[in-house]
Amino acid sequence: MEFKILSHAGLLVRNKPGKSLICDPWLVGSSYWRSWWNYPPVSKDLINSLQPDFIYLTHIHWDHFHGDSLKKFRPDIPIIIPKGNYTRMKDDLFYLGYTNIIELKHGERFQIAEQFYITSYQFWMFLDSALLIECDGVKLLNLNDSKHMGLTLKQIVRKHKPIDFVFRSHSSANERLSYQIVDEPNAPVDDLERYIKEFAQTAKATKARFAIPFASNHCHLHKDSFHFNQYIQHPLLVEDYFKQHQIQSPQVKVMVSGDSWCSDSGFTISDKDWFTNRSALLAEYLQQQKDSLEKFYAQENKTEIDKQVVVAYFEQFTATLPYFIRRYFKKVHFTYVLSAGETTKYVYQINVHQGRVVELPPDTPLDHATYPIQIHTTAFIFLRGIEFRIFSHMCIGKRVFYKVTASQKKYMEALNLVFNAYEYDLLPLRRIFTWRSVESWSMRWREVVLYMQLAKDKLVYGKLDLDKYLR
């Protein structure tokens, strides 16, 4: 068998007769409104060589579920997805024109070909999944972005040991770095080192032979997010961590787009160094994509918003919230500051408790005593969040900036959780009690136990100690 790294989170696995599976094929262009780009870029020759028999999508985030890349493949190709409590992945694939969708339940095994099987393992309230791949006697655990730990990770390891390769993310893909605490400017908003530490802990817990830093090989090229490149934890930093902590097993291997492993010949890894001189290479990459970026800037600058669209969205959103959530936000106002070009064009003050939207003049003095929770982004991104019901994606792209006071930060974090719950069919609450949802969670009882353990830790010790669940 052979596996090949395709991209940021793209993986190709092929058996000896030539049957192939691709996971999370983001191959072309950018993601999250020109913010995320594959790093290193994926060669056109590699893209054109791909003729998969099956595709597996771990979850719905655009750097994994990438519409433009999926269009490279025929509409009747079998696309396999995790079967969680919601149907959005399937619905969106049908919307894109794909007709052969296969849903796998948690722990369900599926045969790709002779001696070629996959098993899907779900995790997290807002559905993510890992994929255990068995091909010609070799076992690969593609954890990707999923944060399996405790009983959920033990389930996978016990059932499938020994595991040969484990793939996992190792850098930030959340909104934490997008926070600015205006009255505590030196307050830390994220612990960057913990991502690599958790990669190492998880890799060791799987007892795999090799650990591949994966699903974090991207960069930022948009002018609003380019500065976030300095915070990306790239694979050489993972390799250094293993050396500093004298971790011999599993053996870490740095692999980027085009690199591969074959059961007959072992590793084939390019000798090009993409990380030591990353700043110069990023500047070159930025220049290569200049025309694409400029066209997008012009598109963003022309965005117009109809206030009634905003009003209709938040009225509908608030109507799905149970009383206890609405009450939590009763005295809280969220101020969206939306730019189009170099100037502020729209300012909306939103009260989630009532579902009320007030439009303020664009030149409103936005002092933080009066407006303690400000969300700065573009009118284009805000409108896309409404049109496609993807507010939960906005913060991932590193193009939304939260300027909040320390005392009000918790409300912004809570709102982002509620957006996720709304868009992942956990709201209204009755959706939790559908047969599909009950079936999914009953199969994932180990995860429910993990959440109960974490809740106990928070109540008893006042903090979450994830280390003990990653051993």
Automatic annotation (TrEMBL):
InterPro entries (alphabetical): RibonucZ/Hydroxyglut_hydro (IPR036866)
Top-level taxonomic group: Bacteria
SUPFAM superfamilies: Metallo-hydrolase/oxidoreductase
Descriptive protein name: Uncharacterized protein
